[in-house]
């Protein structure tokens, strides 16, 4: 990675973004190395993969980012079923605070057992995530080799505008269809834009650039964070629904499945208080 600096000794925007990418790479490795809090590590590793993927479009188009993007996507995707199983159990606990008649302790226990079993099986196939960590190391080596210093403020601004257009397009389609897939696509694009805004804002601060635009980026990122949190509950609820369908049949599970069609609309609207 080139180490270009400005006359005042501060790194240029691209170099600062490269430093932030390197920091995120270290966070990814730390997350995969976590043993005592596996689910937290899985969650943090997937977030690091998404953040790093959001940085790649900021690079000049001639940069070889396709393989890196694909590698990060595959790493996050491999961990997704484990994260979803954990989300399903957590969502059931939240719902039980307000709907304990239907979300019984037996249902919660079944979801937690399913989560633990899936994690145990995954660790048997890849003890201590050795294979995943080796994959991450290879991806990180490629990330370090990218020409981060070639990123110019004009290119970053152009990338952010393109991401904003993609969010607006996804929003329009989600508003028209209200389908889970469309809502999830809207959330993914909004989250990606939020990450990009946060990275560029931090890099501008490190580079000593004017605060006005950085403050606008911070305000936009904050709004997107509230949006993605709201859409996130809907996604978590859909993951819960899918998990209930996969549980072994029991009296409580059958009763919940009968009740869900009439309750899903109201239960998915807002996250219940813990």
UniProtKB/TrEMBL annotation:
Q: Per its UniProt record, what Gene3D superfamilies does this chain match?
A: CHAD domain
Signal peptide residue numbers: none
- Which residues are listed as membrane-spanning? none
Boundaries of every CHAD domain copy: 6-273
Q: Which PROSITE patterns match?
A: CHAD
Top-level taxon of the source organism = Bacteria
PANTHER family, per the entry: CHAD DOMAIN-CONTAINING PROTEIN, SLR1444 PROTEIN
The entry's protein name is CHAD domain-containing protein
């Amino acid at each position: 990675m080139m180490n270009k600096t400005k006359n005042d000794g501060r790194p240029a925007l691209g170099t600062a973004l490269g430093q932030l990418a390197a920091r995120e790479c270290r966070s990814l490795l730390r997350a995969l190395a976590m043993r005592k809090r596996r689910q937290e590590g899985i969650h943090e590793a997937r977030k690091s993969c998404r953040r790093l993927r959001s940085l790649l479009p900021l690079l000049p188009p001639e940069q070889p980012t396709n393989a890196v993007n694909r590698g990060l996507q595959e790493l996050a995707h491999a961990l997704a079923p484990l994260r979803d199983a954990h989300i399903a159990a957590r969502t059931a606990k939240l719902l039980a605070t307000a709907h304990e008649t239907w979300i019984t302790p037996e249902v919660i226990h079944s979801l937690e057992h399913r989560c633990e079993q899936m994690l145990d099986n995954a660790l048997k196939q890849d003890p201590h995530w050795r294979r995943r960590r080796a994959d991450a190391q290879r991806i990180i080596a490629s990330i370090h080799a990218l020409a981060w210093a070639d990123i110019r403020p004009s290119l970053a601004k152009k990338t952010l505008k393109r991401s904003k257009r993609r969010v607006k397009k996804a929003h329009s389609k989600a508003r028209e269809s209200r389908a889970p897939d469309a809502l999830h696509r809207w959330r993914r694009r909004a989250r990606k834009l939020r990450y990009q805004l946060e990275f560029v804002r931090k890099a501008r601060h490190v580079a000593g650039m004017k605060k006005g635009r950085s403050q606008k980026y911070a305000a936009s990122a904050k709004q997107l964070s509230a949006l993605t949190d709201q859409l996130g509950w809907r996604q978590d609820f859909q993951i819960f629904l899918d998990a209930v369908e996969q549980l072994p049949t029991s009296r409580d599970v059958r009763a919940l499945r009968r009740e869900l069609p009439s309750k899903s609309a109201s239960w998915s609207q807002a996250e219940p208080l813990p």
